[in-house]
Amino acid sequence: MHPVTRAYRPVFWSSTLIALLFGAPLAAMAQAPVEQKRPIRLLVPSAPGGPSDFAARLVSNRLSEAIGQSIIVDNRQSVNGIVASEIAAKAPPDGNTLLIGNIGTMVMNTGLYKKLPYDPQRDFMPIGQLVSAGTALIANPKFTPNNFKEFVAYARKDPDRITIAVAGANGAVATEVLKYMAGIKLVNVPYKGSSPSEIAVLSNEVSTALLSIPTVTPHVRQGRMKIYGVTTAKRSFLLPEVPTIQEQGLAGYEFGNWHGMLAPKGTSLALIRRLNTETNKVLAQKDLVDIALSRGNEIIANSPEDFAAVLARDIPRYKKIMASAGIEAQ
Q1: Which residues pair with 261 in a beta bridge?
Q2: pLDDT value at position 232?
Q3: What are the tens digits of pLDDT across the range 211-238?
Q4: How crowded is residue 42: how many other Cβ atoms within 10 Å of its Cβ?
Q5: Contacts of 138 (CB under 8 A, 6+ apart)
Q6: DSSP states of 19-54 as a string?
Q7: H helix and E strand count, the chain
Q8: Which residues contact 270 (CB under 8 A, 6 or more apart)?
Q9: How far apart are CA 121 and CA 266, in angstroms?
Q10: Rounded to whole angstroms, how far apart are CA atoms 269 and 221?
Q11: Backbone angles phi, psi at 78, to 5 degrees
């Protein structure tokens, strides 16, 4: 090494040391790094590909851009969506955990379980409903009946042999009320979400199922499923030729499925308002509206107060329906 190089050893002073020695404020000498926000976990109570997952992914990316915070969709499928709902109910109310709830997890479960590990009204703060869609009674093409009338006659003639996939609380209640009102028996086969139920029907693992209209439409169009009717009050614009179940003799039989966003109780009202405002802006974007409509969903985009009113109205209403059908809380 050159002698000059050995002799000269420059001293590098840190900005912290300079500030301490000369009294200069550290903030004046260097900009402190901005603290990064934690990603928001958006819990979904069903498998990827199902209606709740669709609702979550419809809004998550653009909502993330609007609020400047990444959102990670976390699917926690379980029977009747209890696992995801319980996790969200017990999460810190710091805005970093949100939940996609639906009519099954937030309404039907209250009548299905005596000791539900969460209370939809006590443990959550509604942000807003996102979308809603109807369901349809469908079957594997190999199943003998070709229409709803034949389906009921077949079930009455050969009880306890027809299997029906049941996904979530809404599916469970809709199935039990269908059996009660039609005077038939079916063998319930539970699945952890709409997607596994869909696969079960396509593979002929079960004969029938009640699935969302957007899910079944392409299968019906391509002959991979039979359809017996829709559960909505009016015919679906996706399948206008398919009659409602009410039209076919079961007056009053009506079931739909909405999906909404909620936060743990105690989350700041300011954050609830901001999330509601930004989510509703996202849902007003034309291309997302078109995507939702193409999947048979209607945009709701209501307020936290409206969402709370829906829960207050529907929880006792469906408990009464369930009781009349002989469904007892377990």
Answers
A1: 100, 128
A2: 86
A3: 988 889 999 999 999 999 999 888 888 8
A4: 23
A5: 201, 208, 209, 210, 211, 216, 219, 220, 225, 226, 227, 228
A6: HHHH---HHHHSPPPPPPPPPEEEEESS-TTSHHHH
A7: 14, 10
A8: none
A9: 12
A10: 46
A11: -165, 170
Task: From residue 234, give the alpha-carbon distance in Å to each of 241, 252, 255.
Answer: 11, 12, 11
| DSSP letter assigned to residue 12 | P
Q: What is the pLDDT of residue 317?
A: 86
Identify whether the C-beta of residue 288 lies closer than 8 Å to the C-beta of residue 58. Answer: yes
- CA nearest neighbour of 209 among 195, 114, 221: 195
pLDDT value for 68: 94
pTM above 0.90? no
CATH number at 134-230 = 3.40.190.10
Domains 40-133+256-324 and 134-230 belong to one CATH topology = yes
* Tokens 């590098």, located at residue: 12
Domain 40-133+256-324 sits in CATH 3.20.20.70: no
Bridge pairing between strands 163-167 and 187-191: parallel
Name the residue ranges covered by the structural domains of the chain: 40-133+256-324, 134-230
Residue 183 CB-half CA count within 13 A: 6
Residues of the chain with pLDDT under 50: 1-36
Cβ neighbour number for residue 92 with a 10 Å cutoff? 10
Residue 72 CA to its chain's centroid (Å): 14
Q: Provide Rg for the chain, Cα atoms.
A: 26
User: Measuring CA to CA, which residue among 80, 84, 134, 57 is closest to residue 262?
Assistant: 84
Report pLDDT for 19: 40
Per-residue tokens: 91: 């999460």
